[in-house]
Amino acid sequence: MKKRLILFMVVILMLTTMLSGCGTETPEAAQPAAPGEETSEPAAEPTEDDKFGGTLIRASWNPPSGNFLSLITSTDNDFLVTDVVFESLIKITDKNELVPGLAESWEIADDSKSMIFHLRQGVKWHDGETFDAEDVLFNWKFIANPGYTGPLYSNFAPIVGMEAFHNGETEEIEGVEIIDPYTIKISFNDVYASVLTMVGTKANLIPEHVWKDIDVAAASEQTELLRNPIGTGAFMMDEFAPDQYVSLVAFEEYWEGRAYLDRIIIKATNQDTAQAELLSGQINYMTVSDFNPDDMGLYEDEGIQVLTTAGGSYQFMGVNHLNPDFQDMKVRQALMYGVDRQGLVDNLMYGYGEILTQPLPTSSWAHPGEDLVENYDYSPEKAIALFEEAGYEYKDGIMYRPNGEPLKWVLKYPSGNKTRERSAPVIQQNLKDIGIELELQIMEFATMFDQLNADDFELFLIGFGAGVEPDQSRFWKTGAKYNLMNYESAENDRLLDKGISFIENDARGEVYAEWGVFLNQDLPSIFLYTPELGCAVSPNLRGASAPNVLWYDANHWYYEK
């Protein structure tokens, strides 16, 4: 079989010297030169020995829950732990490139209906056992198990025989073949364009020898195992203090060589005090969603580094399509005109972002182009007119439903993202200006997520990560796990299915452009903005990635001494 080599790149940095000890002291911050003071000769590049040591304390806006099983984890707070403890076959860089992870290379057949992963040899789990193809097969079976409760099954469903295994009709997955201990082949029912992202990057693999005797349906009840994860990543579990922090230490046998940092602490931190903690060195890394010029000036004065990157994620106001109010497209379009989205970007984000008109950010290679979509510039007058076309009545500053009731809704949103929190009262005022009363309810993310899954909502604010892959079936396709809005559209489903039927980006791009234009009109939710992402890090921390990727290359982060 003639095969096409998609990517074959191995970058291994052999670390020649390692230091012992796991001190928890954070290195002193480097002092910036005083204004006007000339610096002496450029500092010499640090040696490998110079890079080892120190603790990184990273802020988490909510405490990790202790559910550190990567295949079922669903919250950002727990991803902060699982994304550095576990690894996937393919990694995504902070430039949104796909590079080898536990697979050192891969091939896709000419008909694009099968592929082979060549696994990296010499990889150890944190307990010293060896990683191989049996572990990969175990993970895919775990995800396809009928009792699986995590979000990844749809990513693997296109594999031949996966559905039959999922339905309990077979004990093996027909389309998965272990060729040798470090080579595994999968076959698909049809062309699966997003396989590298959906199969290669989304599943951080767990060890078969630890989990093989656990009932998959009861995995979320295994508290001891969940809190003491065994992965292959550069850092391994040291201590979990519920509601406080997680401490991770460098894994001495990491396949790429021991990490420079001795320890990582993920600490639950109050956003109101986080800036002071960063300036005093009590934390070393925190995400920034508020680009207030005063704060930016303070960071600059203190030598704090602010790393920013174009956002691959986006924020929107979800609507519940089970609610009759939101089943009329004109109402959804009216809300797009009725919310001052550009004002949110200008006044809350200080320009660090751009408005969104459909689910593909302009940074995506599949974006349809601004000339093909309606911008929905803020216009209370157009909003009111569209409500009236939908049968509502606007009288004396109040919008009435067709049955004569004043229009009132509840907007739910999670704590943790200051810009999003501050957007809620702005949206409340915008809707008040067109006669709609909006009650605001803020809550912890997990609480809101439970209520959304129970369809106990009218409107909510949330963000989705679009990333490098334009296929967003998991969010918007009928019946998808994260289609929290209960959106259903045959045309939407058709375009999403068509989008993954090609391998070549040119052909896919045409489909996603059509999809973007369709959703720009149909508006399954009210698209708000794509934020620029930022993080603030200690002055002497080197190698840290921007926050679009949680821990990319974390084994190479170090403190300049």
For the termini, the CA-CA separation is: 53 Å
User: What's the arrangement of strands in the largest beta sheet?
Assistant: 15-21-14-20-18-19
Query: Can you tell me the overall shape?
Result: globular
Number of helices: 18
Integer-rounded radius of gyration: 25 Å
Q: Which ranges are low-confidence, i.e. pLDDT below 50, for 5 or more consecutive residues? A: 1-40
Mean pLDDT: 88
Estimate percent helicity. Answer: 25-40%
The major beta sheet can be summarized as:
6 strands, mixed
Structural class: alpha+beta
Instruction: Write down how many β-strands occur, each being a DSSP E stretch of 2 or more residues.
Output: 24
Percent of residues in beta strands?
15-25%
Structure explained in plain terms:
It is built from 18 helices and 24 strands. Strand 7 (about 175-180) and strand 8 form a beta hairpin. With about 550 residues, it is an alpha+beta fold. Helix 11 runs antiparallel to helix 13 and helix 17 (about 490-500) packs antiparallel against helix 18. The model is unreliable at about 1-40 (pLDDT under 50). The radius of gyration is 25 Å and the shape is globular. A six-stranded mixed sheet has the order 15-21-14-20-18-19, sandwiched between helices. A five-stranded antiparallel sheet has the order 1-5-6-8-7, covered by helices on one side.
